[in-house]
Amino acid sequence: MTWLTYAAAQFRLSQQVYWKRIGIALTGTALPLGLGAFLPLQARHTVISRMPGSLYVLTGLMAFALFFTVYNLVNAVTSRRDALIYKRLRASALPDSSIFAGEALAAAIPSCVVASLLMVYGAVFLGSGAPHDIALLVLGILLGSAMFTMLAIGVSGVLPGADTAMWIVTPAMVVSMFCSGVYSPVSQLPAFLRLVAPYLPMTPVVRVVRTAYLGQESLPTDLGDLGVMLAWTVIGFALARRLFRWDPRRTS
Amino acid sequence: MLNESVIEVRDLRKKYGDFPAVDGISFEVRRGQIFALLGTNGAGKTTTLDVLGGFLRPTSGSVRVLGLDPARDRAKLGSRLGIMLQEAGFFESLTVAETIDAWRRFTPGARPRAEVLELVGLTHRTSTGVGRLSGGERRRLDLALSLLGGPEVLFLDEPTTGLDPEARRNTWNLLRELAQRGMTVLLTTHYMEEAEFLADRLAIMDRGSIVREGSLAEIRARTASTITFSLPAPLTLADLPRPENTQVEEEAGQVSVTTREPQRTLGLLLGWADTRNLDLTDIHVDAGSLEDVFLDIATGERTTR
């Protein structure tokens, strides 16, 4: 067996149990899908930052869908750790790295599929046409997924357990939704937020996806955004190295 | 081949902070042997198994499983090593079949699902959700997963806790059969009869150290036996001989002599009775049981505290 077969086996298992926890699975997929389908309709007759409102909001929500990788992964990691399932998985022949890979892919793929479905939706119902720069779009989605994956694994190390996981994920989701230019420009935020917003993890993802789709920003802005995403990926990785735990915190 | 040492533990120490959970133990297990680690809760058995399974790194000392370092060479050990943990979770939403199938996908050379379920006697629960299994059935599913890859070495942490007597007996027979075919087994237990039935060799752990080690016979031989008989009238305790290194007591006409050399002591007593033409009735010799050894250790613990 190769590392790839192990990772594929873990991926299959993670996906299988993901869809069996229907509450989590629905929140992780139907929520971003619903937001992405309905909110752009409300912005149909507006213009935001010289772009058609519906497409501005749609591209923002395509990027926002990727945040649900964090939701999926934090849920999976903390609940499996609490239930001592990682202990069992690690008693098998599975290498640790393939457990990570399988879990990460299984959490990221539903989010990427939602983003892709929203793209199709935009083309069919909102007249968005094909993406302006497909390579940048793919790069943005991949790097964004990698960043959220690393941040999720890193943060899950700090979380005491599955019960408290949403205490961190929910505020992060709210901040991402309102402060990262998902449905209205960052320039309209209060002054103090305007300074911080470009460096939040979500903001560059939104901007890269939107630019790739609608072709607005210049190359230097794109590179800066990709740099911020890369920095958060590294931070997530460092946190994961330092804080990740396979076992629940001992109470004694 | 048969004398090959499959598990080697050399002066293993594992500390949690300042607390020495395992405090310098050594033992080895040869191919095809069943080795039992006995001990009270907190004696260090599970920590030892966790080090051997590669989950923990030793503070000092070394362990080898099939000649490999389990923490560093985890990948090389792969499914040559089967591990049944004391407590580990299942995906409650999967059925027994789905669980086995998922584990088969990452077990090289996995046994067919039907075969492994047959082995542990879970065939009738194939399509039952894991969340609905009884404690004993979960334990057997646990065993099924650890046997999936046909391992050369099997670690079992309290394998039969929660099993009913019949299932326990079946598990014992299965393990014996697998050991006869060359599988090496290291198990922890606090059931004396489990160690007595299964183990070729055993070690008793107490507060991080091994206090006794050997075959069952060797360990018993080092434990005091008790010889009891009825005190012949009109003798009193003072009339009886006092062989060296024995303890003689009387209660309601029953004399009990505790000795570490039962054969010599018995010979002395019978010789003494013969020369006086006495009949010693109701003679019983109780070899020290594993339980006595265990209780001895527990008592020692109390007196040294």
From TrEMBL, chain A:
Location in the cell: Cell membrane; Membrane
PROSITE patterns with a match to the protein in the record: ABC_TM2
Keyword Membrane: yes
Residues in ABC transmembrane type-2 domain copies: 23-247
Membrane topology: Multi-pass membrane protein
Stored InterPro entries: ABC-2_transporter, ABC2_TM, ABC2_TM_bact-type
Transmembrane segments: 22-41, 53-74, 104-127, 134-159, 165-183, 226-244
Single GO cellular component term: membrane
Record GO terms (molecular function): ABC-type transporter activity
Highest taxon listed in the record's lineage: Bacteria
Keywords on record: Cell membrane, Membrane, Transmembrane, Transmembrane helix, Transport
Family that this chain belongs to: Belongs to the ABC-2 integral membrane protein family.
Protein name per Swiss-Prot or TrEMBL: Transport permease protein
Species of provenance: Streptacidiphilus jiangxiensis
TrEMBL record, chain B:
Top-level EC class as recorded in UniProt: translocase
Record-level Gene Ontology MF annotations: ABC-type xenobiotic transporter activity; ATP binding; ATP hydrolysis activity
Membrane topology of this protein: Peripheral membrane protein
Localization terms from the record: Cell membrane
Signal peptide bounds: none
Pfam family, one: ABC_tran
Keyword line: Antibiotic resistance, ATP-binding, Cell membrane, Membrane, Nucleotide-binding, Translocase, Transport
Residue ranges of every copy of the ABC transporter domain listed in the record: 7-232
InterPro entries cross-referenced by the UniProt entry: AAA+_ATPase, ABC_transporter-like_ATP-bd, ABC_transporter-like_CS, ABC_transporter_ATP-binding, P-loop_NTPase
Family: Belongs to the ABC transporter superfamily. Drug exporter-1 (DrugE1) (TC 3.A.1.105) family.
PANTHER family: ABC TRANSPORTER ATP-BINDING PROTEIN
The name this protein goes by in its record: ABC-type xenobiotic transporter
